[in-house]
């Protein structure tokens, strides 16, 4: 995480989890960046990332995706995994962040 | 009928089981962050196919040529265990990749929609606020929006 700060990047995590669940995860994992709650997947839908009934209990959830967004809200880098087991690599995200000037 | 001890050992089912365990073991390797992570699904699938080939060969020997090869019952037992592991591997492969393509999502060069959502303390936070300077911290050069499945 200090690497992201050094690169001037603020990570923001978004999921359908409630604020309580996110708080528990943040405490357990030691995350200090904002974790936002989108329980009805309204923003997730708006971002075209809805995974219908993708949750363990048939809930609509977000498909995993990462966007590097600059200060004018323009996308500079994206990652859409094709396999939930394959996660975005911090190195890739940092490399994209360092290209921003 | 030749003496049973003259018959050859049938190692193919053992190899099949070994590859099947390797195939399912790839799922553990996903927890290790590595540049090769993207290749793991295909490695897992390849090992499962390899395992199947050895199992078929092993059973062919054990059941089709019992006069040449030993270990008929063992071959069947090993194959059943291996097929179970291969089944789990295939299931993991298919279910992990059942994702919407999201072709309509914002691409490089496009603007992302504004939003306002609750943070972990229940406070509403907007995209503009996230991009602004916070208490003591300067405005970030960029945000990394990470959408994740939740339910951890």
3D structure, described in words:
The complex is a heterodimer of chains A (about 100) and B (about 150). Chain A has about 100 residues and is of the alpha+beta class. Chain A contains 4 helices and 6 strands; from the N terminus they run H-E-H-E-H-E-E-E-E-H. Chain A has helices at about 1-5, 20-30, 40-45, 90-100, and strands spanning about 10-15, 35, 50, 60, 65-70, 75-80. In chain A, the strands form 3 sheets. In chain A, strands 1-2 form a two-stranded parallel ribbon. In chain A, strands 3-4 form a two-stranded antiparallel ribbon. In chain A, strands 5-6 form a two-stranded antiparallel ribbon. The longest helix of chain A is centred in the N-terminal third of the chain and has 11 residues, at about 20-30. The radius of gyration of chain A is 14 Å and the shape is globular. In chain B, about 50% of the residues lie in helices and about 10% in strands. Chain B contains 4 helices and 3 strands. Chain B has helices at about 10-30, 40-65, 70-95, 125-130; strands spanning about 115-120, 125, 140-145. In chain B, a hairpin with a 5-residue loop joins strand 1 and strand 2 (about 125). The termini of chain B are far apart. The chains are: A alpha+beta (about 100), B mainly alpha (about 150). At the A-B interface, strand 1, helix 2, strand 2, helix 3 and strand 3 of A face helix 4 and strand 3 of B.
The computed structural class of chain B is mainly alpha
Q: Multimeric state of these chains?
A: heterodimer
Question: Which stretches of chain B are low in confidence, meaning pLDDT under 50 for 5 or more residues running?
Answer: none
Can you tell me the CATH topology of chain A? Glutaredoxin
Name of the CATH homologous superfamily of chain A: Glutaredoxin
How does the overall form of chain A come out from the CA principal axes? globular
Q: Percent helix among the residues of chain A? A: 25-40%
Helix and strand sequence of chain A: HEHEHEEEEH
Shape of chain B: rod-shaped
Helix count of chain B equals 4
Helix/strand/pairing category of chain A: alpha+beta
Distance between the termini of chain A: 19 Å
| Overall number of strands of chain B | 3
What is the residue-mean pLDDT of chain B, rounded to a whole number? 93
Secondary structure: helix percent of chain B: 40-55%
Report the order of strands and helices of chain B: HHHEEHE
């Amino acid at each position: 995480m200090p690497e992201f700060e050094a690169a001037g990047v603020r990570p923001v995590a978004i999921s359908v989890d409630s604020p309580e669940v996110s708080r528990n995860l943040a405490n357990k994992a030691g995350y200090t960046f904002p974790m936002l709650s989108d329980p009805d997947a309204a923003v997730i839908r708006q971002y075209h990332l809805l995974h219908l009934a993708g949750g363990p209990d048939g809930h609509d959830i977000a498909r995993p995706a990462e966007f590097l967004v600059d200060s004018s809200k323009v996308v500079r880098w994206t990652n859409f995994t094709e396999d939930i087991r394959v996660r975005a690599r911090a190195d890739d995200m940092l490399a994209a962040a360092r290209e921003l000037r | 009928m030749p003496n049973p001890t003259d018959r050859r050992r049938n190692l193919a089912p053992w190899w099949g089981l070994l590859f099947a365990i390797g195939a399912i073991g790839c799922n553990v390797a996903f927890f290790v962050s590595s540049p090769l992570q993207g290749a793991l699904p295909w490695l897992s699938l390849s090992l499962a196919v390899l395992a199947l080939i050895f199992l078929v060969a092993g059973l062919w020997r054990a059941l089709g040529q019992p006069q040449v090869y030993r270990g008929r019952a063992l071959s069947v037992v090993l194959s059943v265990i291996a097929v179970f592991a291969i089944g789990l591997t295939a299931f993991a492969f298919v279910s992990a990749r059942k994702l919407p393509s999201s072709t309509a999502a914002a691409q490089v060069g496009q603007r992302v929609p504004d939003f306002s959502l609750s943070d972990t303390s229940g406070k509403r936070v907007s995209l503009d606020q996230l991009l602004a300077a916070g208490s003591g911290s300067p405005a970030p050069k960029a945000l990394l929006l990470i959408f994740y499945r939740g339910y951890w």
